[in-house]
C-alpha cells in the first residue's frame, strides 16, 4: 500500500467508495466523477503506478482485469450496445491517480477519436 494513494486508501477501508465488486485481486467501484451514465473503475489491490510499471509477471493480473471489465459491463447492461475500456497512462493521457486502473464507460454513444 502506498500511504498517499487514494485508491490504496479505499482498498484499505480508510476512505469511502461505492464498491460494486471485490475479490482477492481487485476492487470495482463507481467513479466519483462519471464521464458516462455508467463509469466504473477496476483497480488492482496491488499498487502499481501505471501500465508502464507492469512486468511480465503481471500479465495474468492484466488479463484478469480485462475479463472483469467484460463481466462488469455485462452486469451493468452495457454489453449489447457497447462500452469502452480505457487505461490512462501518464499526465498527457489524463492519468490523475497514479495507481493503475481501468475505466469502463457506457450508456451513451462514444466518439472517435477520444480526447
| CA-CA gap between termini | 31 Å
Helix content: 10-25%
Low-confidence stretches: none
Strand order of the largest sheet: 1-2-3-5-4
CATH superfamily: HIT-like
**What percent of residues are in strands?**
15-25%
Furnish the topology, listing elements before pairings.
Elements: H1 6-11, E1 19-22, E2 26-30, E3 38-44, H2 59-75, E4 83-86, E5 102-106
Antiparallel strand pairs: 1-2, 2-3, 3-5, 4-5
What key phrases describe this protein's structure?
HIT family, subunit A, five-stranded antiparallel sheet, alpha+beta, globular, 5 strands, 115 residues, 2 helices
Please describe what this structure looks like.
With about 120 residues, this protein is an alpha+beta fold. The protein has a single domain, classed as HIT family, subunit A. Helix content is about 20%, strand content about 20%. It has 2 helices and 5 strands; from the N terminus they run αβββαββ. It has helices at about 5-10, 60-75, and strands at about 20, 25-30, 40-45, 85, 100-105. Strands 1-2-3-5-4 form a 5-stranded antiparallel beta sheet, with helices on one face. Strand 1 and strand 2 form a beta hairpin. It is globular. The mean pLDDT is about 95.
Amino acid at each position: 500500500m502506498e500511504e498517499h494513494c487514494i485508491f490504496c486508501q479505499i482498498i484499505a477501508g480508510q476512505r469511502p467508495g461505492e464498491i460494486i465488486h471485490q475479490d482477492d485481486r481487485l476492487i470495482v467501484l463507481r467513479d466519483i466523477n462519471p464521464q458516462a451514465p455508467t463509469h466504473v473503475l477496476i483497480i488492482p489491490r496491488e499498487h502499481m503506478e501505471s501500465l508502464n510499471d507492469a512486468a511480465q509477471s503481471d500479465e495474468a493480473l492484466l488479463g484478469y482485469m480485462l475479463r472483469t471489465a467484460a463481466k462488469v459491463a455485462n452486469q451493468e447492461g452495457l454489453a449489447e450496445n457497447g462500452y469502452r475500456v480505457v487505461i490512462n497512462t501518464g499526465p498527457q493521457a489524463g492519468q490523475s491517480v497514479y495507481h493503475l486502473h481501468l475505466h469502463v464507460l457506457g450508456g451513451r454513444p462514444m466518439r472517435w477519436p477520444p480526447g
